[in-house]
Specification:
The structure holds two protein chains of two kinds. By secondary structure, chain A is mainly α. Helix content of chain A is about 75%, strand content about 0%. Classes of the chains: A mainly alpha, B alpha/beta.
Chain lengths: ~325, ~500
């Protein structure tokens, strides 16, 4: 239901109050002038608030501010606010003619509808194309489409493409996987070179570099770029660098967290448990640890505890990845 | 005129066959180079002139192969000029010349090949004879500018004009360099390109000028390999539509331009060459799919000198724990997957050694990455870089040979391994599966001469290598199958007989 009639009525009543203020003030009747003024000050804020554009009225404290202005600046504030809101909302910004034409979906070519559905669910569609499409060109496009998704989602898909019967698809997938691996390996080498050729680095700087190198080794394993014994080796190397970093950054929760995840991956459960505990001790939120602690509990067959940890994990899973981004824009 | 450097050994006589070689023999070691050397050596009654096409002179050093006596000339042509770019100078350019280039572009856009010979002759005339098209006019003339801007407005999509301009320049400059060097090319009775790409294009140009037969042999599929390279290179700027609906597009316009360029010159070679020789049936089918006429394409498989390796067949009962990787250290050989596999193998067989037998100078950056990987996987005690060695000397000490390439044709190293009595573990590329498991029913009956694994799968590679090295009977069975297979199907005399027959047919008027 439109708010406009209520706004108009309140504005009229506020206007009567303002006229009453002037009349009683001029007549010397300060008591009734005050009552008119107070009534006006109470009636004005909400209509003005409603006329201001939505993006400026997220904070409801604005109503209190409007009341304060109307109360402490009799007459001038009310008139001034009304005029400026009307000017900003209706004079400067003329209503935009709607240039859109509504059509029914049946009027959209089928390919476009298919395409929209395709875009909406990229990862699973890419995988489906690779697994089920008989057209090599489509599978090549699917491989190229992995450029638009995160490495974590892209790499398992590219590994499917490595088994494609057409070697162009395989070679393309290989090239893309190789590029991802090269970036991490190059970053590792750069930092290792800096560590060996820059003796003047402070302990903190060295620790940061150890941390970064450890993360890169961890990524090689986590993303699935290393398999089998090579994976075990990079995990152990990651652990080595985490341990070195911890000698300086002894209270860094993220480092203990990483060490715990590495230990979990290597099936070193007691070590993982200890380091999750230390990560918690040094400030890591329970929600962040919970999924991994659940995984650890499952690995050790402590199924009752799995449920307990999943309750905590639920709090973080209710957020989706866009929530923080939306908050940023607002 | 941006003539590239040209070293020229004057021919002592007109050669029977001019081999046109892009980036291979005699300056780069590898399977194709070895094949060329083998072919020339095996046909001493035929005289050869060599025309080597490379990127720039400073990229190549000494000859890697001693030239047999029946090589009567060696000529080089380069795609990149090391001369300074001429000073900017306004000039009008030739309207007719650029109209011819426009028609050539229309051919590359898909017009009928019959018109091509005339168009190509005209363009070559403008470059080669009247010099109306040269580096200066292409870079600075009004006609050139009008031509490029017209092409851009017609078809460039959303790419930047600057990027388009430099792409067109980068694409045409090597063509002008090659065309300008045509007068120095050796005269021969038959022209034979050993790949499509620039070698194929050059062969077509020589055929057009001299009206001689032109034939083509392909080991890999040049166009396919360029397409993969082009999908990944980062120096092509493109407008990336990160949030829009461009999932249906393969590549940006500029990448597509490069891909179409190589596809077009490949089609050009296929349409002009007769015969076209493939080394495997798979390649033959691919050539037909890429535009070759089926009747013109024949399979002539590789062969190996069985006598050279016969003495190596005598081996101990158990396999030596030495794994051989024979090949150049370049990305297409995927040495890294082999090194990752070695991590698993070394854990299970601590006395094993991996010998990398091949040059590292072709791609020093990749070679360094491989060495870094050896260090990061703690394989310094197990992986030994032997460099380039005489293959017969090292084969005697190996237990198995590994090929982890991501793309191959019919690898000579497999045939050499078989000839010396060694099994192979190879990735499922090119003809490897056929070579290891057998092609025909009769061939399959011989048994497996090793194992085939998926590409880039270090664990699968390690598993099969360990299986062979740990099980004496399995190893012996694979060896026996290898020797039988190579003796029956891959004697190099078959290769020589086939090419002798093909050359004689081409040389006969």
């Amino acid at each position: 239901m439109s708010k406009m009639p209520i706004i108009v009525i309140m504005l009229i009543m506020a206007g009567i109050g303002q006229i009453g203020l002037i009349y009683f003030f001029l007549a010397g009747d300060f008591y009734h002038a005050s009552i008119s003024h107070v009534l006006s000050a109470i009636l004005l804020p909400w209509p003005i608030f409603s006329l201001i554009a939505d993006r400026y009225t997220k904070n409801k404290m604005l109503l209190l501010l409007l009341f304060i202005w109307c109360f402490f600046i009799p007459l001038v504030a009310g008139i001034g606010l009304l005029l400026s809101v009307a000017w900003a909302s209706y004079v400067i910004k003329a209503p935009v003619k709607n240039n859109f034409t509504t059509i029914n979906t049946q009027d959209i070519p089928t390919g476009v509808i298919k395409h929209i559905a395709y875009v909406q669910n990229i990862s699973s569609n890419i995988r489906s194309v690779l697994e089920y499409s008989s057209a090599a060109e489509e599978r090549i496009r699917a491989v190229l489409a992995t450029r638009k998704i995160s490495d974590q989602n892209a790499i398992p898909i590219l590994q499917i493409a490595l088994k494609d019967p057409i070697d162009e698809v395989r070679l393309l997938a290989y090239s893309m996987l190789n590029t991802k691996e090269k970036k991490l390996s190059a970053a590792i080498q750069t930092h290792l070179n800096e560590l060996s050729h820059m003796p003047a680095l402070s302990e903190m700087e060295k620790a940061s570099k150890y941390y970064y190198v450890a993360e890169c080794y961890w990524e090689l394993s986590f993303l699935g770029l290393e398999q089998g014994e090579a994976k075990v080796h990079v995990l152990k190397t990651a652990d080595y660098f985490v341990t070195k970093a911890l000698k300086t950054l002894i209270r860094d929760a993220e480092l203990y967290f990483l060490k715990a995840r590495i230990a979990l991956e290597l099936a070193q459960y007691q070590l993982a448990k200890n380091n999750f505990r230390l990560a918690r001790k040094f400030g890591m939120p329970v929600e962040k640890l919970a999924p991994y602690q659940a995984e650890l509990a499952f690995a050790e067959k402590r199924y009752a505890e799995v449920q307990y940890f999943m309750q905590h994990a639920k709090k973080s899973s209710e957020k989706n990845r866009l929530t923080d981004m939306v908050k940023q824009w607002l | 005129m941006a003539i590239t450097r040209l070293r020229h050994t004057p021919p002592s006589e007109q050669a029977d066959v001019c081999l046109i070689l892009e980036g291979t023999y005699p300056y780069i070691r590898g399977g194709v180079s070895s094949w060329v050397h083998q072919l020339i050596s095996g046909l001493p009654e035929i005289t050869f002139a060599l025309l080597f096409i490379g990127d720039k002179p400073s990229s190549y050093g000494e000859l890697r192969y001693p030239l047999p006596d029946n090589v009567v000339a060696l000529t080089e042509a380069y795609l990149v000029s090391e001369q300074a770019t001429p000073e900017p100078k306004a000039c009008p350019g030739s309207k007719q010349a650029f109209e011819s280039i426009h028609r050539l572009h229309e051919y590359f856009g898909g017009q009928h090949a019959k018109a091509l010979s005339a168009i190509l002759k005209r363009v070559m005339g403008f470059i080669h004879d009247s010099k109306e098209i040269n580096t200066e006019t292409f870079l600075y003339s009004r006609e050139s500018w009008d031509f490029i801007t017209a092409q851009y407005e017609k078809s460039s999509g959303d790419s930047s004009f600057l990027d388009y301009f430099w792409t067109i320049r980068a694409m045409h400059a090597p063509l002008f360099s090659l065309m300008a060097s045509l007068s120095k090319a050796p005269h021969a009775r038959v022209y034979h390109s050993i790949s499509t790409g620039y070698a194929g294009l050059y062969g077509v140009m020589l055929q057009t000028i001299h009206q001689r037969p032109f034939m083509l042999t392909e080991h890999g599929i040049y166009t396919k390999e360029r397409k993969i390279d082009l999908a990944q290179i980062e120096w092509i700027n493109e407008t990336v539509d990160r949030y829009g609906s461009s999932l249906d597009k393969e590549f940006s316009y500029l990448r597509q331009l490069w891909i179409r360029f190589f596809e077009s010159i490949g089609r050009l070679a296929y349409s002009s060459a007769k015969p076209i020789l493939a080394i495997t049936e798979g390649n033959r089918l691919r050539q037909i799919a890429d535009g070759a006429v089926a009747d013109n394409v024949t399979v002539v498989t590789n062969g190996v000198d069985l006598k050279k390796f016969a003495a190596l067949r005598d081996r101990p009962a158990s396999p030596p724990l030495v794994i051989g990787f024979i090949g150049r250290v370049v990305p297409i050989k995927d040495v890294k997957t082999f090194l990752r596999a070695m991590r698993s193998i070394y854990t299970k067989l601590p006395t094993v050694q991996a010998w990398i037998i091949g040059g590292e100078d072709e791609d020093p950056k990749y070679a360094m990455e491989c060495r870094d990987l050896v260090a990061s996987l703690s394989l310094q005690d197990c992986v030994i870089y032997k460099g380039f060695c005489n293959v017969t000397e090292v084969m005697a000490e190996l237990g198995v040979i590994v090929l982890s390439s991501i793309s191959e044709g019919l690898p000579l190293v497999i045939l050499e391994a078989y000839a010396s009595g060694l099994p192979i573990v190879a990735t499922d590329v090119g003809a490897c599966r056929e070579l290891i498991e057998g092609g025909s029913a009769e061939d399959k009956a011989i048994g497996h001469s090793g194992a085939v694994v998926p590409i880039a799968n270090a664990e699968a590679l390690a598993t099969e290598i360990i299986k062979l090295l740990s099980n004496r009977d399995h190893w012996q069975a694979a060896r026996t199958a290898a020797m039988q297979r190579v003796d029956r199907y891959f004697d190099e005399e078959n290769l020589f007989d086939n090419y002798r027959r093909i050359y004689q047919a081409a040389l006969t008027p």
